[in-house]
Amino acid sequence: MASLLAWLRRHVAVVAGLFTLAYLILPNIVVMVFSFNRPAGKFNYSWQEFSTEAWRNPCGVPDLCGSLTLSLRLALWATLGATVLGTMIAFALARYRFRARGAVNALIFLPMAMPEVVMAASLLTLFLNLGAELGPLTVLIAHTMFCLSFVVVAVKARVLTMDPRLEEAARDLYAGPVQTFLRVTLPIAAPGIAAGALLAFALSFDDFIITNFTSGSTVTFPMFVWGSAQRGTPVQINVIGTAMFVIAVLTVVAGQLLADRRKKNSAPSAR
Amino acid sequence: MTGTTTPTAAGTAGSPPPAVHRPPLRRALVPYWLLLPGVLWLVVFFLLPLVYQASTSVQTGSLEEGFRVTWHFPTYWDALTDYGPHFVRSVLYAGTATALCLLLGYPLAHLIAFRAGRWRNLLLVLVIAPFFTSFLIRTLAWKTILADSGPVVEFLGTTGFLDLTAFLGMTEGDRVLATPLAVVTGLTYNFLPFMVLPLYTALERIDPRLHEAAADLYASPVTVFRTVTFPLSLPGVVSGTLLTFIPASGDYINAELLGSTDTKMVGNVIQSQFLRVLDYPTAAALSFLLMAVVLLIVTFYIRRAGTEDLV
């Protein structure tokens, strides 16, 4: 007992850190466990009995998979828009000196420094005043807007660490501007652009607050989950949450393994 | 979220600006062409909406007769007096959640940066992993975790924790759901990764030799932390608290899903005024007031943090 206390005192920071990690992971475990529940009523909040029914029929709830595909499509388009616009801005900010730099930097920073509900509410007043019909298009416009800043930050960080001499070298070797951009600049900036795009996709796919204000009667996946908190939560929601978690973790682990192997393979020749 | 960048990186290395062959005027226009579409998007869908919201907040009228700008500023005063408690709650809950995030997040960031060794990448994945499941689903999971007479609440009750939180006005009786404690728990949980990641980045940059040097000079681990580690991690603390406090202050999801009518925050009022009551002027005024409160707190905080950093 005394030695246990001594050990605890020595490792108090580590224990606290692991406790925090448990706090972070606990809901994911609950979501996973309750995807195998057979709830007694409309709500899936208390454990009843083991069942794999929801896993065998993940689309068995009306509108669920429809909302999921809509969210995926919206996220893809928003990612495309935000990545293209954001990458252009990032290059302008990282590579050129011009007069409006400070103002543009502030314009990029502000959407990230504002509570989401303020942006959502102001967008709604814009659409109401313009008489725009709320639907997938207004959601797409809104998502592209708030993802833009995050793409700029991610791409800018990468472009700033790029060595401009690589492009000079390409030009010295008689590469045209287009060739230089496609064969040198773009490949080097690619990890930053990919990071920005992934972030934009995740933010758009999971966004609730801005979608809530701009979607009208359109139901994205987060909107579906929100509604289900009032009407009754089908087990299928937990199934989809678990599947998303597992797929994403496997992707990350696979990517890590691939990067490790590539590093190992190229290590001898790199020197 | 550094905002400003040091004006070095591009165009350094003693090189003349690239592409000298092109005519200078056309070259000078390149950045503007690159900026144009994105900046236009932000001006039309970020700045212009704020202008429209400002105008909406000084309108009077009704949904049937239409709204008109009458420069009716008392809406702001009414909103503030009617929903004062909601503002107080927002700042209080978001502030408590931010403090808890710092308290919980620091050891974890420290663990990942200094003690994890080859487990570092795995731990980082575990911090980001919760993001992969839709955050609304995870917030709903807290309903299960904090369920009345569930194991968690039972444990908190027997250890006397609930007596303490009841004394602080965070809980009532032997329930956790539908109390401020549940809302703060949800907020803390949802924004914890936004605290851990900047903290980790700041800690990871610290040269471990500084710790060794301090230890060689007979500093105890606590002194090393107090005089070396923590001051050097301050940039991470500042960006982490901002990344946590700002979104938490406008959040209405945790208060809606885990709280009760007594735990509503400003976000909840803005949402219901805009989407259910359809009282647009009041909603717009509230939204602006929230923005003002957040900006005020953030500016004050950055000033304070900035001076402390120098001392």
From TrEMBL, chain A:
Q: Keyword Electron transport on this protein?
A: no
Organism from which the protein derives: Streptomyces clavuligerus
Per the record, membrane topology reads: Multi-pass membrane protein
What are the record's GO terms for cellular component? plasma membrane
Q: Transmembrane as a keyword?
A: yes
Q: Which terms does the UniProt entry file under GO BP?
A: transmembrane transport
Query: Which classification does the entry list for the species?
Result: Bacteria, Bacillati, Actinomycetota, Actinomycetes, Kitasatosporales
Q: Which UniProt keywords apply?
A: Cell membrane, Membrane, Transmembrane, Transmembrane helix, Transport
- Residues annotated as transmembrane: 12-36, 74-94, 106-128, 140-160, 181-203, 209-227, 239-259
Where's it found, cell-wise? Cell membrane
The primary location reported for this protein is membrane
- The protein, known as: Polyamine ABC transporter integral membrane protein
Family affiliation: Belongs to the binding-protein-dependent transport system permease family. CysTW subfamily.
Q: Which domain of life is it from?
A: Bacteria
TrEMBL record, chain B:
Bilayer topology annotation: Multi-pass membrane protein
Q: Name one Pfam family in it.
A: BPD_transp_1
Keyword annotations = Cell membrane, Membrane, Transmembrane, Transmembrane helix, Transport
Please verify whether the record's keywords include Cell membrane.
yes
Cellular component, GO, one term = plasma membrane
Q: Does the keyword Membrane apply?
A: yes
Cited Gene3D superfamilies:
MetI-like (1.10.3720.10)
Where is this protein primarily located? membrane
The UniProt entry's GO biological process terms, in alphabetical order, are: transmembrane transport
The compartments listed are: Cell membrane
| Domain of life of the organism encoding this protein | Bacteria
Its family remark reads: Belongs to the binding-protein-dependent transport system permease family. CysTW subfamily.
Q: What is this protein called?
A: Polyamine ABC transporter permease protein
Tell me the organism.
Streptomyces clavuligerus
Q: What taxonomic lineage is listed for the species of origin?
A: Bacteria, Bacillati, Actinomycetota, Actinomycetes, Kitasatosporales
